[in-house]
Amino acid sequence: MTASPPASSPGLPPGYSASTAFDTVRASFMPLVNLLQGELRAGGDEAGPAPRNLGEFTRWYLQVVQQLEAEVAQDFERPSMAREAVELMCRSAISAASLDEAIGLCRRFMALLHPRAGALTLKCRDDTASLVLDSLRPRTTTASSLVDITGLFAFCQLLQWLAGRELPLQQVRIGPIQRDDVLPFLKLFRAPVLAGGECYSLDFDRAALTWPCVRGRTEFDAFFELFPCAVFGVRAHDLGAQVSAMMVASLERGEGVPSQEQLAGILEVPLSTLRRRLRERGAGYRDLREQCLSEVAAQLLKRGDLGVAQVAAQLGFSDAGAFRRAFHQWYGCSPRAWLAQSKTQSERIT
Fold first, then answer.
1. What is the pLDDT of residues 109-125, one digit of tens each?
2. Are residue 195 and residue 288 in the same domain, yes or no?
3. Which residue among 8, 184, 189, 215 is least crowded, i.e. fewest CB within 10 A of its CB?
């Protein structure tokens, strides 16, 4: 009897199993794993059991980073920036209209927590923008360098998530860490990495500062669960999901639904290409528009701080009557009746 080949996992190419993916990732990031494990052992700590699959590998990385942060905080006798504070900073950035504005919000948030959050500076020269992170520590150790590099990577991940696309990095500066230890971060940032200086920075195309932030609050929990360590897998970008994210973010800011022309401009594709790719995925613009309008309408009503007329205005309806008619088509009842039903269901659950 001939043995059957291992089944592929959903979303992976034929013959490419989850274990194969894990082996590839592990081989790619093993220098980083060894570096982190060695630093923890030097501080008298352990990294815990070795991960057995891709999901465990990501959670292992998050645990190690948190252990290192605690070690550095103890060494310098200064409290680190708590994960809850990091979450609040990232949540505040969602309200920004552009990456430039998001960086400004993060910079102001960190200034409020001076000095434990460090300092963030944006410098622009010609066509290059440099996002500089300064931990404000009096001296540098290998452990503190690893924590600072992780912080730099976290900002890179946050900006890419907010924009829904990869940041056009030109180079990354990772401070005074030894050159022999640069290899892991070449793979982490996927850009030229410079070591040996005093600066921790991301240098990228200045034009990216104008990119709109397209993410909404409903997407944040999934993003932040393993932030900034969910780096060990490439997720396919679904165009329908990207367009929906842009629509929801625009509606939450009270800017209405972006037109097809605006979406094509944001995604930097011809309008005909956008329409064709949406059709190929069975997700037309009108269907996505209605779906996003209905979802955001329900969220705003459930929040309770806006009346029907205010929700109608935020969603771009001409008046409350037009909104009520649309809402009835979506949910089969009026906004008032829907709220009453929702409240009743919540009471039953509790």
1. 999 988 888 899 999 99
2. no
3. 8
